[in-house]
Write a structure and sequence with these properties.
By secondary structure, this protein is an alpha/beta fold. The protein has 2 domains: 48 residues, no CATH class; 170 residues, P-loop containing nucleotide triphosphate hydrolases (Rossmann fold), CATH 3.40.50.300. The protein contains 7 helices and 8 strands; from the N terminus they run βββααβαβααβαβαβ. Helix 6 links the parallel strand 6 and strand 7. Helix 1 crosses helix 3 and helix 5 crosses helix 6. The chain is elongated, with a radius of gyration of 25 Å. The structure holds zinc ion (ZN). Zinc ion binds next to helix 1.
């Protein structure tokens, strides 16, 4: 195959000195070391990009998309304990989904969502798929599903979907959830995940006792690791 035969010539690369350059027809490909380095760079960029896409897929709000454990504000020793526990939870979660559920309970502004987002980002970087679900969005999805004119899904389909994602982060559970049927929905969802041995991370401004009073967690509350701060 004369036409496709590769030819080569000596060149002087400004970065790598004397090199051999290959070519086909009248096209020359430049310094081989430079090309190898460029290819490596493109590969790294693509890896980084796909990591970013995985992070985007969690669905975190912009405020929490780039958070990390190290920028969580620690003001007292109790918080250092909380940080240690959540970091070790994230590490375990990255190795196996067989971890207990986690409740991050505390007042607004204590950084619960920040820590939940850190866990999700950490696990995602280790290729564990996490899904962020603000409790208000879940309820509006459910309410829309009850509107037979506009719905695109039934409520059981929504629950089934969130019931099956590998790691679910329910943010701000308990705020404004005063309707009994809403509590049943949450119980149903968390129960389904429990049966399938899939971990759920919950942030709430309720105490764990209040949360348990609202949502039926009898069978599973032993599995919840609890954080107070
Ligand atoms: Zn070069």
């Amino acid at each position: 195959m004369k036409l496709l035969s590769m030819k080569s010539r000596r060149i002087e690369c400004s970065l790598h000195g004397a090199q051999i350059e290959n070519g086909v027809f009248d096209r020359w490909f430049g310094c081989q070391v430079c090309s190898a380095q460029a290819a490596k760079l493109i590969e790294l960029e693509q890896k980084e990009k796909s990591k970013c896409e995985d992070i985007d897929r969690i669905g975190l709000p912009k405020l929490y998309r780039n958070v990390s454990f190290k920028d969580w504000e620690k003001t007292d020793n109790r918080q250092i304990e909380v940080l240690k526990t959540t970091l070790s939870y994230a590490q375990k979660l990255s190795q196996t989904l067989r971890v207990p559920n986690l409740v991050l309970s505390g007042n607004s502004g204590t950084g619960k969502t920040h820590l939940a987002a850190c866990i999700a980002r950490y696990a995602t970087r280790k290729l564990v798929r996490c899904t962020y679900l603000p409790s208000a969005s879940f309820m509006s999805e459910i309410r829309l599903s009850w509107d037979f004119k506009f719905r695109s899904k039934h409520d059981f389909e929504i629950i089934e979907y969130y019931g099956r994602v590998p790691v679910l982060i329910i943010d701000e559970l308990g705020i404004g959830d005063s309707v009994k049927s809403q509590h049943d929905l949450w119980s149903f969802l968390i129960d389904q995940r429990y049966r399938d041995l899939l971990p759920t991370i919950i942030t709430t401004n309720l105490t764990v006792t209040e949360l348990q009073a609202q949502i039926t967690l009898q069978r599973m509350h032993r599995r919840f690791a609890v954080q107070f701060y």
